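Batch manifest line 505
LIGAND: adenosine monophosphate
JOB: complex structure
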Amino acid sequence: MSTVQNSEQDAPSGRLVGLDDSFARELPELCMDFVADSVEAPATLVLNDDLAQRLGMDPVWLGSPQGTEVLVGNRVPEGAHPVAMAYAGHQFGNYSPRLGDGRALLLGELLDGDSERRDLHLKGSGRTPFARGGDGKASIGPMLREYVVSEAMAALGIPTTRSLAVVSTGESVMRETPEPGAVLVRVAASHIRVGTFEYAVRLGGDELVRRLADYSIARHHPEAASATNPYLAFLGAVIEAQAGLVAQWMLVGFIHGVMNTDNMTISGEGIDYGPCAFMDRYDPATVFSSIDHGGRYAYGNQPAVAAWNLARLAETLLGLIATDPDEAIELATAELAEFQSRFQQHWSNGLARKLGLESPPSDGPLFEDLLSTMQADRLDWTGTFRELARTLRVEATDDDGSGEAPAAHSEAMRQWIGRWRAELEAQGRPVGSTAEGMDEVNPLYIPRNHLVDDALSDATGGTLAGFEELVRVLKDPYHRRDGCDGFTTPAPEGFEDTFRTFCGT
Ligand code: AMP
Ligand code: MG
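JOB STATUS: finished
ARTIFACT:
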């Protein structure tokens, strides 16, 4: 892969020059040259200064009229080669042979502060040849939603695409009602999806998949290159990355909502935050998406769906894994079988950390019993782990300084806490520092649905103060701050029964 040209010397002004186009150069079959629609009255609604700086861009310039023109797609940065990427995908289990960037563009690639290659991508920038029936546009609400969710994910330390800016276009976009239009500027390790492989194998067979896989290995999983069977190792690396990702989602109560194969990356970053949501009261059957009637993408189904999607990826790699088809299937099947144990390991290690344990308990269903008690007691996923830490602290000091009465635990929960205390003791975990450690890994502030909803409807109406405050609070999810208590309360009882999320497309 060639080096990109956005070094300090090349872009002293942070003006986004010298974007590279390695994907378009190396895989021209998988994209189409395209430029964004021009819009009349772009205005930056939100700009991510910290991310801009990490990318070596000057936030002041990005916020200027010239910067806004680039961010909204009106002006192509000097030397850039924007393309719409092609991909296919299994949507709710059904194969769509041609999806692609219907309303998005890959503007180019640059190197961030860690010299990692990052895609710069515009979403909502106009109809491309992949648009099918769509208008190629996006409205403010869903783009701000992706902004706040992706930035919350990043603050939680979970692999994710990032959001650099949301720019309103001044246009009206027709959804159920007319809504203000907007473009999201997204930053990603890459936009290569499982669906990119599904498209490639049908278009160009093993030769094209090999080039796509080689490119993906070099960019995301370089260790696979030196394995005895690099393409099998590549499959294993994607399986590991996705097992870790889905476990981390579930440890924070996140439901992606539309885990189609075109919404699953090869890098292991979460992408395409449409009808996603964080669950308040724990129930593995939780589904919020208005289009997910069968609950295919329910909270508790996510590991199984990820495994299913990875099987679709494996199918595209069979011809590279071995020349004998039976052998290829055998090797790929064995690799896919690893998903469950990899996921389980990430999940139970993560749950152990959330509960202040050194490692998962060696015997007994301690974790399962916590989950069933939380479900029976309709406990808030996020709040419960903070409350458990507080229980320890109160026990140690008789007063945790918060002035709050301890939670009224159910009998089942009191019994469970007793068993958990015994496990902490058995693992030699001191009460005080264990509680502190738990607070370091259990977020206090997450994008709760009712808060996000309120902030987005205000923003759509033209008032951004609530959205800005939400973004600010979620930037530091772990440390309690004065004046932020309203962000820690679950939605009122009954809210989740009727709450629905939408694709906004
Ligand atoms: P999504 O559900 O947003 O991940 O999108 C699935 C597919 O639909 C992708 O190919 C998108 O590019 C395309 N798409 C979604 N919304 C639009 C739109 N408004 N105009 C054109 N294409 C769209
Ligand atoms: Mg998508």
